[in-house]
Design goal:
about 35% helix, globular
Length: about 400
């Protein structure tokens, strides 16, 4: 791969001050060699030159929650009550073939690149996203989902998870990592949480779980009531006695740790925040999906004040269309009362930290992988971070993954 020198009106490294008229030099190995004012960044003979004077160079965005296998489900699931919505989605999923899911996942990867996203944290049960990432040369952490709300399903569900992980492990690489996802308290028994957590830790696999997402979930766990409890009873699944919060349940069963990504985390109290902090768990904050499903607003400001690692996620197109991490970042900015630079940091360095990848990606820093988005600037030229966030996916001119140009906006 040839070396490339990118210059732009602004370079936004995220971990240091913005650089006006800046440049980034990417080596042939796909790693960043120099970042600084254009006049100070060398231009070796034969290097490819890319000049975008009206744009900004930003770290490739990190989307901490996707379901790329559902890319074709845009608009197919009615805006029902959340419990009914899940049932409809599950029924629709059974109608599709594995190959259809694979092609959808590949389209999802390309859609991510077109919106400036270079790394995803994806959860799914069809085993196709790891293959899509590997075949396209993309980057991400792929969490294989496991389900089983009945305690008697525990061993069978765990065995199926082991087989599913084994089937995708050959796709793992320096840029594609495999994890597991005991889906949620309304689809996983306490016994399965415990068994999956033990097995994942023994295998060195990171964990992701939908947690404290809805009031219906809280009603199930805390009060053994509500629509999820009713659904369990109709299916002959024993409903545990009223107990802890969802966060406490996950903690009690060993699911929380520094390798755990907690998705949504809307319905949390002070004790939950302390448990998350003590465990060192990370948060995938999905503000637009939370709002669309009527879950409420996650306490982003309290997450950050507690020192939790927080990234931003879009969820799937079945929840929110389009997958626009810029829009989620702007919404997070409003929720948390953040400056634009802090919101940009959440969907770059914040996401990288949440996934344990911040030594590799998340900032424009010499020695890190050259995952870079070139984004038009909108609005106040004195605030390039706000200008980049305002531009949105339509303002993405080009995207690079490991120094390789994977997307270029059509002109004309």
């Amino acid at each position: 791969m040839p070396a490339v020198r990118l210059t732009a009106g602004w370079v936004l490294p995220v971990d240091s001050e913005p650089i006006e008229c800046g440049a980034v030099l990417v080596g042939p190995d796909g790693f960043i060699e120099r970042v600084g004012p254009a006049a100070e960044v060398p231009a070796p003979a034969g290097v490819r030159q890319v000049d975008e004077p009206a744009s900004a160079l930003v770290p490739g965005l990190v989307n901490t929650h996707t379901h790329l296998e559902l890319t074709d489900f845009d608009g197919r699931v009615p805006d029902d009550d959340f419990v009914d919505w899940i049932a409809r989605l599950r029924a629709l999923k059974e109608e599709r073939s594995t190959e259809a899911y694979l092609e959808a996942a590949k389209r999802g990867v390309r859609d991510c690149w077109a919106s400036g996203v270079t790394t995803v944290a994806d959860t799914g049960d069809r085993g196709v996203v790891a293959r899509a990432l590997a075949e396209l040369g993309a980057s991400g952490v792929v969490y294989q989902e496991v389900f089983g709300p009945h305690p008697d399903q525990c061993e069978a569900s765990l065995d199926q998870l082991r087989r599913s992980v084994e089937a995708v492990r050959h796709h793992a690489s320096a840029r594609v990592r495999i994890g597991v996802s005991p889906h949620a308290p309304f689809t996983v028994s306490r016994a399965l949480y415990r068994a999956v957590s033990r097995w994942a830790r023994s295998e060195g696999l990171p964990i992701a779980l939908h947690l404290a997402e809805s009031t219906a979930e809280v009603d199930l766990v805390r009060a053994a009531s509500g629509p999820f409890a009713d659904a369990w009873r109709r299916r002959g699944i024993p409903v545990p006695a009223p107990g802890p919060t969802p966060v406490q349940l996950a903690d009690d069963e060993g699911a929380l740790g520094p390798d755990t990504l907690c998705i949504h985390a809307v319905q949390v109290d002070g004790a939950d925040l302390e448990r998350l902090r003590r465990a060192g768990a990370a948060i995938a904050h999905c503000p637009r999906a939370n709002r669309r499903h009527g879950h409420g607003t996650a306490p982003l400001g309290r997450f950050l004040a507690a020192g939790l690692r927080v990234g931003i996620g879009t969820d799937s197109v079945a929840s929110v269309t389009p997958l626009d991490l810029f829009a989620d970042a702007r919404e997070a900015q409003a929720i948390g009362g953040l400056e634009a630079a802090d919101a940009l940091a959440l969907c770059t360095l914040g996401g990288a930290r949440a996934l344990g990848l911040d030594r590799e990606i998340g900032t424009l820093t010499a020695g890190k992988r050259a995952d870079i988005a070139i984004v038009d600037l909108v609005g106040d030229p004195a605030d390039p971070a706000a200008g980049a966030l305002a531009a949105g996916p339509g303002g993405v001119r080009a995207t690079f993954v490991g120094g390789r140009e994977v997307y270029r906006r059509a002109t004309g």
